Amino acid sequence: MPGTAISPAEVTHVTSGGFGLRIDDRELFVSFDEFPWFRSASTDQIRHVERPHVRHLRWPDLDVDLTVESIEHPDRYPLRSAL
Length: 83
What we know:
Structural class: mainly beta
Number of helices: 2
Number of domains: 1
Mean pLDDT: 90
Radius of gyration: 13 Å
Distance between the termini: 44 Å
Low-confidence stretches: none
């Protein structure tokens, strides 16, 4: 029996402060301050997002994996990067 279909994630726009990310019927904003791995990335690298699981996002060109919850609630996931 096939698994549940997962709609893809889509980057809707990129600004100097972050980018919009459409997931299902909602749009989230991914701030470069909260997620600095994206700050120096090209627009093409940011737009190349995969959704291998309903709660998991991957940017293979950047070697970045995030949970949807960490984007929705970055305060629950304090940054542990030296960037």
